[in-house]
Amino acid sequence: MHPDNLHSTKDDMVAFIEGHGMRRLPGHAGDDVPGILWEDETNPDSWKDFVEMAKTAGAPFITMSDVVLEKDDVELLIEELQEHHFPDEEVPEVDEAQVLVTHIGKTGYLQLGFAHQGIMFLHESATGWYERYQQLLESVNDFGNIVLDDGDEEEE
Predict the structure, then answer these.
(1) What is the pLDDT of residues 105-136, one digit of tens each?
(2) What is the b/e burial string over 75-107, where b = at least 16 CB atoms within 10 angstroms of the residue's CB?
(3) Parallel, antiparallel, or unpaired: how do β-strands 61-68 and 23-26 relate?
(4) Domain boundaries, the chain
(5) What is the side-by-side order of every strand in the sheet holding 61-68?
């Protein structure tokens, strides 16, 4: 079963981490930090194994971050998609973004992490709708990075 709201999973994580006598540090490990991502997609409770691994490694704390979908985020995404596809009225991506309104206020992403010997070990959990939200954001960003050659540059 893949829940569409990870809020209760977050509560379970907090209790499990505290039950192991560990502390939580609110923080997100970004892409610029050397890291290894935990891979065990077949086990929905693999985050428990991850917490136990952190304790075994002697980590004094675990970083924890979450993403809750906000109304402003969805509105901005829809606006950006509409601008990039103007004057097209029917754009499947805009329709997909509008469906995200049903997930406002839900937790779509969780990240746990611990540092060991200069490397961040990470565990990520995400809902299907959050992964699609990220894909739509990336498509907007990719489209915004396209540079059009207008032919006005001087040739050397």
Answers:
(1) 999 999 999 999 999 999 999 999 999 999 99
(2) eebbebbbebeeeeeeeebbebbeebeebeebb
(3) parallel
(4) 7-142
(5) 23-26, 61-68, 107-116, 119-126, 35-37
